[in-house]
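In practice, a research group might receive sequence data for several interacting partners and want a quick structural hypothesis before committing to experiments. The following worked case mirrors that situation: the sequences arrive first, and a predicted assembly follows.
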Amino acid sequence: MSEKYHNNFLKEVEEMVEEGQWVKMCMQCGVCAGSCPLGPHWAHPPQEIFMMIRAGKREEVLTSDSMWMCTSCYNCVVRCPRKLPITHIMHGLANYAHRLGLSPKNQPTQQFATMFWNNLAQTGRVNELKLSLGIYFKDGFAQGVKNAMAMQSVGLGMVKAKRLNPMELFGGHGVKDKAGFHAMLKKAREIEDRRKNFA
Amino acid sequence: MAKKTYSFYPGCSSQTKASSDNYLKSTNSMCKYLDIELKEIPDWNCCGASIGYAEGGELPRITLSARNMALSEQHNPGMDLVATCAACWLSTRESKERLAHSSQTLAEANTALNEAGLTYKGNQAARHMAEVLVEDFGFDELKKGVKNPLQGIKFAGYVGCQTNRPFGLAGESFENPMYLDNLVEAMGGEAVSYDQKVTCCGGALAFSEPEKSQKQIKDIIESAYDHGAEMIVTPCPLCQANVEIYQGEVNKRFGTKFNIPVMYYSQLITVAYGGTAQEAGLDGQLVRATKLEEIAKK
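A structural hypothesis for the assembly, expressed as tokens:
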């Protein structure tokens, strides 16, 4: 292997991160930061992340909780004068950091995202009841009961409006071809893992 | 007008007793009045929504949508694929774009799809139901079906994010899309002008970051009230759920007294076309839409 340069993080992002090839196009105008609904909560707004990538700050970027603040509203994408797919780059960085085990511990959106994916991957469709309970109980049983109690009126309201089915706990909606669905996802993950050097 | 047929992708939230059960119910009623036949894609799966990226990554996420599109091509050939959920539509359309732009992604997705005995060709358009109404019917045509105009009700048309960005409806601006207001007016209602029409409700972060998201929800409802709206109307199931069901939480957090109904456009159209409250799924509201219930056919 040839010698690593300090500044090869940009190359790594270009090769491994979804839509990463766009990072070099950022012209540092900051419209993305000003357009983000959760802007004040980003330790480093997108344009800063882009510059940090170019400056080779691998660890600072991948361990940051910044990109986990993305709500997928696409405001930054439609306003970016250089038309960077910023939302996808943030998603890509979050996924890359997570798969490398570098994302911050107990980051709530990371935890929720994993729960969501595992939930849908199981039956092919989202089980909303199990997903909600999963969130309430993610920090242990006692905290779970407390969370569930706090949200009790919402839950009961949804059941009453026939928009939440308690029976979903024992099965619920799903695809019929589960074997094919699981094999498909397994193969897709295999291909992606090989390409991005995961696992 | 002749009967129109579409390949229908309802999505996880629009299933029986799921969180947008009332969206599905009112969509079915609306389509009955418009002589639209929705042929559900057999055995469709979840699109991954806007939070699937973090664990699912790129190819597995795109493959989810490719499976739906492949099933649609196979079982409902010659039709446009139509989704009612904003995230379903966005994921499907985005995946379609990626598959068209990269022969490598296409080949990899098809390798994965082969495991389920499927192949994606990419010969159907991926559309949102709002596009069907606006483009295949048009406001003048939609107006003709109105039997019980929604007279005297002021609506805040809450377009939100994902039917608006990054794709949106053809000819609309991202900052001030008009199609929802035009739909409201076509049904005889009044669309108020307010400044949070395309503000994000927090999306999936309403679950993981409730504090930050509820600030978004508060801004949206506050502006709707301040501009005289009596109801909010939206094309997105997550916008609907977030803005409706967290009002109690928002009230606790911010000391507000919000209690505003949040409806789907399909419920408005169903009621205006002479449907009953039940056909419009009005019994599925946590905050009841009393004024719509009064207009709905008894």
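Before designing any experiment, note the following. The first strand of chain B starts at residue 4 and ends at 9. Chain B touches chain A through 65 residues (CB under 8 Å).
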